[in-house]
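If you are new to this repository, start here. Below is one unmodified record pulled from the training split, so you can see the exact layout before writing a loader.
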Amino acid sequence: MMGRRMGRGGRPGLIGVAARTAVIAGTATAVSGHVAQHQAQKAQAAQAAQQPAAAPPPEAPAEDDMTAQLEKLASLKASGVLSDEEFAAAKAKVLGI
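And here is the target side for that same chain:
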């Protein structure tokens, strides 16, 4: 009748089922990949928001540095490495005199 075969009643054959399965599997893979990528981006953004910006370490006050230098000079004088004159000159230099 008009060139159409009526043997199967309109059901797809083996190739049609395989093609439909391939399309469904491909779509599922694409969607799951997109979801995984989206979740990874959200996790990165959340992690970046939780990390505080690294603050530079506070500078030591100049007084502490000056005290340490004076103590070092005093220990050098006490051990005999510096004479009284050398100690006085170095001390004046540290104190800015």
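Two things worth knowing about this chain: The first helix runs from residue 14 to 50. The mean pLDDT is 79.
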